[in-house]
Design brief:
The chain is an alpha+beta fold. 33% of the residues lie in helices and 30% in strands. The N and C termini lie far apart (55 Å).
């Protein structure tokens, strides 16, 4: 196979058992190849060895040269596992300040009571730094006390970081790893900010060592492409940034899969279910964005941004529990835990004379999990995947597909014990299994007010859950292409991401624009193409919080509208997502990159509402909205027109003025300004988006009534 230089993106996912790697066409996102190697936990170089081994195997299989690779990203559970297992470095806290500041930082010694795992508390040392000029002596004292990494803490360092910078610089001059709380977040809240920084420091030595090994190995292989690591919020960051803030990779296990759903599957509004052998991670994509919140670690809230993921103990390998009369539960134990192969993947001939038995998967577990024992004494696990195949709901091209005849024969002993047909027994198993999954999906759909969501299944066990759940709920559903490698696919396709948060009482337009510029500059510094960077800004006046989230690709990947796009298929997809007939859909606006469609739909009680869908050049719905006004302008006149429309559609009530939510279609970008609640701030951000555009460039203004 021959490639153009820089034509391939590589994604690698380091799992607990296997390390998966994929090669993806950088232009079309087509999967070119995939490999699997054992994760090298016990190697001298740790997981870095497995990453290199997977990369070299992938290159050999496809004939990739070093110059063919333009981008390489890997996801890893290393940070998460270190925190869950309490396997962290000893952290030295240098509390900077005098008076009340000294009292406040001294209380942080209590972090030593934080239990990361049963019997594993966070190892902490503390020293007070009353004079930053003596920071070096404080660092020396911490190192003598056993500290492997230093955290500089000062109560108001987000306003004046001088004291923290002095401590961090003194540590780095001595070759000691260090971090400062203001380097982690710009938010107030000393305890939470310091807790986040201390956890970041605890995993820093191991993560920096891994980053060094990965980088040196990849460079020795001749690859000079950008090296990235998956973050817990679904984006990627550079290795240099990971060395500074390794905590951002924690909880990134589900993040790569969601990135795959966003990019490879072009999911813009829906629920992503990543199903493994034991559990299903459930997350939401709304208006083309992942939902992110501050994560809890060690039982406490942090300032770590991570996906809002709900985990349910149901997977493709989940075992069935049987009371003797009825199916009582499916899971939480799995075939992997029991050490048994899936029955549905055995040939049908082995089931002659087979019988139903009950087992305890692990010592101390209830002895009501069922298995099948063949005539020769071999035992097989009767799993959720077996039931799904027996019912015939697993698509033939999916990773979890098994022979239906064999699956039904395997399920027959259970069906006999239940007094049901095989199909009735299979349906009973699936209904019991998806109950907790459906409860979470229903909660997320309601909580995030999703409009006609699509369920997308990923992971090796996707087909055991998603098809039946879709049928039960009535939601559209699909299994992601190459679902079994959705995580490394997501790593290969993920966007560079940076989040900047600041607390600014009564923020001015200058404050908001400065925060936006900081986020944009951060992703550009990590290799994102400036032409394609999108920055979403949210201003929360009640908390005086400004949040700017910037995303961008390392190359510009947005395409003009494809000439071969099937207009009828696009209309049908838009109509299905709104819940109307294709004949009711009409085009509202168009640009070289996007088409805007809409249809009126009557509410159950009340007036008709315009529902809008923005479709990109490949026919993918990128934005859902309703109660909207759409108008086309050009970049030169758009600011004045937006000001007039925003004023016209502002609602007034007891709570004050409510300006509309606004999006701008500007070149390849969908500029999301919906997080701004003040009219002047809205116009300032719109100006920042439009200032680099030619006056005659078309711009589409989209306004949504927040009521």
């Amino acid at each position: 196979m021959t490639f153009q230089p820089g034509a391939v993106r590589v994604g690698i996912d380091v799992g607990g058992t296997f390390t998966d790697a994929v090669a993806v066409d950088a232009r079309t996102f087509e999967l070119l190849g995939q490999v699997k190697v054992p994760t090298s936990h016990d190697h001298t170089d740790g997981v870095a060895h497995g990453i290199l081994e997977a990369l070299e195997k992938l290159r050999a299989d496809l004939g990739l040269s070093a110059d063919d690779v333009s981008f390489l990203a890997h996801g890893t559970t290393q940070a998460t596992n270190a925190l869950l297992e309490g396997d962290v470095a000893t952290v030295g806290i240098a509390g900077v300040g005098t008076g009340y500041d000294a009292f406040a930082t001294k209380r942080l010694r209590a972090f030593g009571k934080m239990e990361l795992a049963p019997g594993r508390k966070l190892p902490v040392r503390f020293v007070a730094v009353r004079d930053p000029a003596r920071a070096g002596a404080a660092v020396d004292e911490l190192v003598r006390a056993g500290a492997e990494v230093v955290v500089a803490v000062e109560p108001f360092s987000v306003d004046d970081p001088g004291g923290e910078d002095a401590v961090a610089a003194a540590a780095r001059e001595r070759g000691v790893l260090a971090t400062a709380t203001h380097e982690i977040t710009g938010l107030y809240g000393l305890t939470k900010r310091a807790r986040t920084a201390v956890l970041n420091a605890g995993i820093m030595p191991r993560m920096v060592s891994t980053a060094d090994l990965v980088e040196s190995s990849v460079r020795r292989a001749g690859i000079t492409a950008a090296l990235m690591v998956v973050r817990g919020d679904g984006g990627v960051m550079s290795l240099a940034e990971m060395r500074r803030r390794p905590l951002l990779t924690a909880l990134s296990g589900p993040a790569a899969g969601v990135a795959g759903a966003l990019m490879a599957e072009r999911l813009s509004e829906g629920v992503f279910l990543e199903t493994g052998g034991t559990s299903t991670d459930i997350s939401v994509v709304r208006r083309g964005r992942v939902l992110v919140r501050h994560a809890h670690l060690g039982g406490h809230e942090t300032y770590l941004p991570a996906l809002d993921v709900r985990t349910v103990g149901i997977g493709g390998g989940s075992l069935i529990r049987f009371s003797g009369r009825a199916i009582t539960e499916v899971g939480p134990r799995s075939a992997h835990i029991a050490g048994l192969p899936y029955a549905c993947f055995a040939p049908a001939a082995v089931w002659s004379g087979a019988k139903l038995i009950t087992i305890s998967p692990r010592p101390g577990d209830p002895a009501d999990y069922v298995a099948i024992e063949t005539a020769d004494g071999t035992r097989y696990a009767l799993t959720l995947t077996c039931a799904a195949n027996a019912l015939g709901v697993v698509p033939a091209d999916s990773y979890a597909y098994a022979n239906e005849e064999s699956s039904q024969a395997a399920l027959q002993p259970l069906a006999t014990a239940l007094g049901l047909s095989v199909q009735e027994a299979a349906r009973a198993v699936l209904r019991q299994a998806v109950k907790p999954v459906r409860a979470v999906v229903d909660q997320l759909v309601q909580e995030y007010r999703l409009d006609h969501p699509t369920l997308v299944g990923g992971g090796g066990g996707a087909a055991a859950v998603t098809p039946f759940l879709g049928a039960e709920t009535g939601h559209d559903w699909r299994i992601a292409a190459h679902a079994e490698v959705i995580s490394p696919l997501g790593a290969a396709l993920a966007l560079v991401r940076e989040s900047v948060e600041r607390i600014v009482p009564s923020p001015s337009n200058a404050d908001i624009l400065a925060t936006r510029a900081q986020a944009e500059a951060a992703v550009v510094a990590q290799g994102a193409d400036p032409a394609g960077v999108e920055v979403d800004v949210t201003v929360d006046p009640q908390r005086n919080l400004i949040r700017a989230v910037a995303t961008g690709a390392t190359e510009l990947r947005t395409k003009d509208r494809a000439a071969s796009l099937d207009a009828c298929a696009v209309h049908a997809a838009v109509a299905r997502s709104i819940g109307v007939s294709p004949a009711e859909v009409r085009e509202l606006a168009t640009t070289p990159q996007y088409d805007v469609f809409g249809a009126s739909k009557r509410r159950r009680f009340g007036r008709s509402v315009m529902h809008l869908r923005v479709v990109d050049g490949e026919g993918v719905i990128r934005l859902h909205s309703k109660s909207v006004v759409v108008e086309t302008a050009d970049a030169g006149t758009a600011p004045a027109r937006l000001a007039a429309l925003a004023d016209q559609h502002t609602r007034y009530g007891d709570g004050g003025a409510r300006i509309p939510a606004v999006w701008l279609l500007v070149g390849p970008k969908i500029a999301d300004l919906s997080g701004v609640l003040d009219g002047d701030q809205l116009l300032a951000l719109a100006g920042a988006e439009l200032k680099t555009r030619a006056d005659d460039e078309p711009v589409v203004l989209i306004l949504e009534d927040r009521g």
